[in-house]
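Continued from yesterday's entry.
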Amino acid sequence: MSTNKKFVDIAQQLKPEINKTTVFPKRLIEVVGDKDVFQGWRINNLEEIENLELKSFGKNESFVIDFGDHQVGYINLSIKAVGSPPDAPLRLKLIFGEMPCEIAESFDNYDGRLSRSWLQDELVNIDVLPCEIQLPRRYSFRYLKIIVIDTSKKYKVAFSNIYITSVTSADVSKIEQLEDTIQEDLRVMDNISIKTLRDCMQSVFEDGPKRDRRLWIGDLRLQALANYHTFKNYNLVKRCLYLFGGMTLKSGHIGACVFIEPQPLVDDIYLYDYSLFFVASLYDYYTATNDMDTLDKLWPVALKQLELALERLNEKGIVKDDPSWWCFIDWHNELNKQASAQAVLIYCLKRGLYLAKELKQNKVIDFIKYKIDFVSKAAIEHLWISEKGFFISGENAQISWASQIWMVLAEVFSKNENANLLERLFIDPPAIKMNTPYMYHHFVDALFLCGMKEKALEQMRGYWGEMVKDGADCFWESYNPEDKFFSPYGSNVINSYCHAWSCTPAYFIRKFLR
């Protein structure tokens, strides 16, 4: 890792104040199986939360409470013995769930690809009753299941004063109300988007407060776009940019993500597209703020990402596709990333050109102009198949949604030609589809870019709108309307159900529909 201490110090000086709110649960519930609802689990109301204090629980008994909507914070609860004096420790199991599946399905059966430790459950042993406890770990959840694992035969326990200290760096007072002309379903989408972004805004823009609780640059770019139209916390974006710019990999590449605690540390993951998105993120920040000082300081890091990315071109001007690299684009095991990466490079070169012009760096301007022309012509000559009307990717000439969408965003063709390309996706849809809100964001963005407003709204309603129908109170990390158990990690219980890259309906609504 290469560290610019000055940049990291600037980032640390921008560390935000965390706002705290006390939130109490709303009701007692039960989770029951129902194959006709999302992931097969339905919530039934049982009774008001006030009745909990009238109940007592012994060994192997449990209850589930609902906080009404998604929360991020620290759980507090009071417990007392009922019956004889407690003659053995109380052992509890607490299970936290963003969605009903996490409450209903046994974590003992988990066989996903990510660590079991991300699943939110805790064993707590209590020696002295009565007591008040606050668990030290921050949780991300709506539902809480409490199981009495053991007491003794002589006593039971009762619970009261359960609440969460909710935390975020977002300031909800900055949110402007939407106009009355915005349709109700879009207003619901906007509210859920803002809630998603709010819960991901902590000391940095986290990708997800349940998992991974890190600063990922792909998520940051989309969060920042939504933030500019909602919370307007420009300093939080600035902090994140300085963290990435201040801790690069030895190669000079921007790392894909940054750990925040105990001290900022760049991860050793390098993604071709994510490193380039530092340029796009800096461009978005500058156009939102006109912060020339930050642009001037971070531009050398951004320019370095363009130079490094260009080194991956082959003699034809095409991004080399071999086992030595990793490019994200979307969670899809069959997706070839070459054409999308080519388009991301063009997209970021064009944003780098704008920044170089703002800085009046004439030699750099000429260099980037030449590269844009070279890489764009290469994409058309070697990846565009006119008789098919699509771009291909990889040695097997794969045609995917992602390749076409990213070439539209890169504006390799004219606006009309790009609109025709997007129309062909609806007429002759490629088999390699999109799996995440991250990729759907770029699809909707491409539709708006081409002036296809009604198609863009149709996709928002057909994707995020379907999440709403399936019970989302925050938007999710992954969602396939045709496979509602889809997970890139092999198990839906490990999925993040409040995830940063899914927050952008608010961006689209507030930028394009007002």
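--- second protein ---
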Amino acid sequence: MSTTKTTPTADTTRTEPRGRLLLIDGHSMAFRAYYALPVDSFTTSTGQATNAVHGFTSMFLSLMENEEPTHVAVAFDLAGGTFRTQEYSEYKATRDAAPEPFVGQVELIQDVLSAMGVRTVTAPGYEADDILATLAARAQEQGMEVLVCSGDRDSFQTVTDHCTVLYPVKGVSTLRRMTPAEVEERYGVPPQRYPHLAALVGETSDNLPGVPGVGPKTAAKWINLYDGLDGVIAHAEQISGKAGASLREHLDDVLRNRRLNRLLTDLDLGIDPAADLPAGRADRAALARVMESLEFRTLAQRAQRVLTFSDAVEPGEADDALTGPTTDVLGRDLQPGDVGRWLHRHLGDAGVLLGLDVVGTLMPGQGDARLLAVTDGRRALAVDLADLSADDEAELAELLADPDHPTVVADAKGVWHALRARGLDLDGVVADPSLAGYLCRPEQRTYDVASLAQRWLGVDIDALGNGEEPAQGEQQSAFDLEALSADDAAPAQLLACARRAGVLLPLQAALDAQMTARGVAHLFTDLEMPVAARLAQMEDAGIAVDDAVLAERESELDSRVTRAAESAYEAAGHEVNLSSPKQLQTVLFDELTMPRTRRTKTGYTTDAGALADLYAKTGHPFLQHLLEHRDAIKLRQTVEGLRKAVLPDGRVHTTFQQTVAATGRLSSTDPNLQNIPARTEEGMRIREAFIVGEGYECLLTADYSQIEMRIMAHLSGDEALVEAFRSGEDLHRYVAALVHGIDVEDVTAQQRSHVKAMSYGLAYGLSTFGLAKQLGIGNAEATALRDAYFDRFGKVHDYLEDVVEQARRDGYTETMLGRRRYLPDLTSDNRQRREMAERAALNAPIQGSAADIVKRAMINVADRLEALGLSSRILLQIHDELLLEVAPGEASAVEEVVRQMMSGAAHLSVPLDVSVGMGRTWREAAH
């Protein structure tokens, strides 16, 4: 922001201000923020537009940082009329309705302000400007300095020697300081007479017409000559020329304008500015929640620096709620045996719950642990692992591997990899706060210890370090470690490690209570924790890859990229950078004169979806080759990423993410093995590179057939759909026959394809419009197909209706196993947000139940293999598919285990059909 701190105007009769009050016109600045930032760049993953919220919040934090107000309030307009519209119905009548993406953002701004401890003020029948003028007048009477932030020029009449208006001249980032001198210089009249000028000139934004032919210079000259508007009106007959005649003809308009643009300074708000509007202390946990829901990571960090929080620890104060354990930081003077003696002395008792934090590389196949902190809640140890003697490391290894020492570890799977790389086994993990936090709030984006502590304990770990440096020989609280300088024995990273360890036990206790209250504690102990343990083993094993095959695929795709580019150049008539949106816009819309796509701030979109739609309309060869070029590049990038991910052991070790998808599904990263196409020839050729590893006989793949549809049949109880599964016929052909009222053998390929899309579309919350677009048919035909479908499967329709209404009442959906997804937007007044939440409500129980069943199957298969003493192992879980590496001579036994455990993972009213295949490569094992 370009503002500088306000220095009160010299006034020998006024003492030092008793405080600085910042007043903000909420709606005015929200609209400014909306138009300053593009909607497309500020939209959450759930589709909620947040550009106005982001711009407003950024401006507010800048004001708090730059102006350092001691008191704050934000005024908002209320829906409905005011005394001004009662007098003049055309007042502001020409303003357009709020843009659809803006709707609902004011409420979100108010949520942010509430979490920041800022008071918002409204007054029925009056505008925000009247509230600001009233508060500004009363605050100055109390000897306060006032800043008014508003984009409404009517606010200039509040300007005095002790009240400055911050007026936006560029979005909400550049504000002009309107002092008495600045107002007079720009408008030719002092602030108190600015509304006189506006009455004569009029205000277009308020739909207040002025005197025709009278501009600001003429109006200012009259006002100064005749000592104000009253004087101008009194001398109207003496003003000559066309301007004078126009004034006399429109005197009623001038008088009306003056009545309406006068801001009230005497509203009965019941607010004493000095006593009732102190700059509040923010609620750290509430602010963390609202910022995370808005996906404002950078702004959240900025708010932590700028704002004062209600849980802030003053220097010298003890934090009675969370003092943390006494911490011994062993560093520079560490001697052999120190760690072992410490562990025996303080953590030797079996059965005591421990908190553990590790700093290092938390990745499978290439992990490394550097720093470690462990605590029982009373005392804690923080140590650099590089400083340990062999004996001390052995003592630590014994503690970590002892299942009689139950341990709480955030991201336990990653920590397991890091410690394993140092030869340390972690076998006592009983709880992972990251997974617990995910079960409680699956829509959040981060589950690290710092975020969880803010969200559930209201604790900022980094801020809890304001104590005095301890005297020689004294210990420190885990939350008092900031007092140590960089030159002390413990580096900053080790101190942070100790703080995180210190918060783990109270954090897990809080999350245990939350999981119990939300009915998901059983999922934590019976599903997510066991899954994490199995995923760690799968990641550690990895999957063997034939790099020669990948190199061949990469070369093929290079050639395909080149051919597609050359064909595109030929179709365009010249070379063009196919990766440049600007150049593509020129070729598509100027040179080839194709229909324009959706407009963006940089022109017309050239994203894949828009180009695919454009190709469907035009069939132009340039688009055909452009789309082919993009597809080949995407596949080549996949192959390049796989080749880079192959480790010296010749295997790829992906990382499975448990806390990303709100439905409970796993995702894969570093590399992403879920983005390899499974139903295209190109994708299958890439899968040829995944091979059985040395010492094993073959790969086995097993997946569920149409699991989402089976779950929908079970949950809806639709007899016709249940019978479709029991018939033994091809499901989608059988359903198509029912929908169209024909025999199964008469169903065409297109009819089967359309009904298949309909069935899965319903399970994934696809709208009729979306179905029409996907199938390339009209909305009317899609509606007719949907109606025919529901005529045959009426209980499916009833189930889909009921699940949304139930979620609207409860605030969440549930899977068959009780996994919840909270959807507060189901009751939103914003249609876009509400409809997106409704689609999520349709999707979550079905997709979430499928994810839960696959997880349970994975646990059961792995447990059974171990119980039978088999050496075969699970390597991957990709959506509904398990991939195993089969040891010599175990193929038959493994197939039996897989079929039995997967088909028995859930009891549905239709059978869970499992398909199994085997082969030397992932492709050969397909079925």
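The chain has 35 helices and 28 strands. Residues 1-13, 312-322, 465-489 have pLDDT under 50 and may be disordered. Will compare against the first tomorrow.
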